[in-house]
Amino acid sequence: MAFQKTLFEACERSGWRLYAYCIMSNHFHLCIGTPKGNLSEGMRWLQATFAARFHKYRKVHGHLFQGRFKSLVVEPGSYWLSLIDYIHLNPFNAGIVDQDSLSGYNWSSLWYFPKRSTRPSFMDASWLDYTDDCQDSKGGWVRYLNTLKLRSETNPKLQSKLEKDLNSGWCIGSKEFKEDLASEYFVKKGPLRMEKKELKEFNELQWEKYVQRALAALNLSEEDIANDPYSIRWKLAIASQLKRTSSTSNAWLSRRLKMGVPNAVSNNCGRYQREEEGKCKYAKQLMNMKYEH
Question: Residues 9, 115: one domain?
Answer without folding.
Answer: yes
